[in-house]
Design a protein that fits this description.
The protein has a single domain, classed as Beta Polymerase, domain 2, CATH 3.30.460. It is about 25% helix and about 35% strand. The chain is of the alpha+beta class.
């Protein structure tokens, strides 16, 4: 499933995707869904991206809690090679906030980590430190 997640992240690279949820954590089941967080100032651009590729989708809203603020985030649900994909679309400014609390790296860095997972059964996990830098560690997956 992580191989497919990597493919989808490459396709959505212009929207700065982050992998989140069970696929990232290594707990996704056979019929699991891939959760991606996208960061763009133009939500309609994501919809146009899907439409231009003939990919049908449904839109719903999900509550996002960030500090003391609550707001709705659009989630586009579609299928990619028969696997359900959830695309949560955040504002570009949210990329540096807690919006991606369980997400890992953007695609340009995530690609390496996902390839490592697919080949070696490892995943690079990162934590943001107080100084704003990312510290990584390797964890063995199932």
């Amino acid at each position: 499933m992580r191989t497919l997640a990597l493919e989808v992240m490459h396709a959505f690279e212009q929207f700065r995707p982050y992998l989140a949820g069970p696929v990232l954590k290594g707990t996704a089941g056979r019929y699991g869904e891939i959760d991606l967080q996208l960061f763009t100032d133009d939500c309609k651009a994501v919809e146009l991206f899907l439409l231009n590729r003939g990919i049908s989708y449904d839109v719903s809203d999900q509550r996002h809690y960030n500090s003391d603020q609550v707001r709705a985030v659009s989630v586009l649900k579609c299928n990619w090679s028969g696997v359900p994909i959830n695309l949560a679309v955040y504002a570009l400014r949210d990329e540096r906030s807690g919006a991606r609390s369980d997400a890992l790296f953007p695609v340009r860095q995530q690609e390496h980590a996902l390839e490592m997972v697919c080949v070696e059964g490892q995943i690079a996990v990162c934590d943001e430190t107080d100084d704003g830098l990312w510290r990584g560690r390797g964890e063995r997956t199932q």
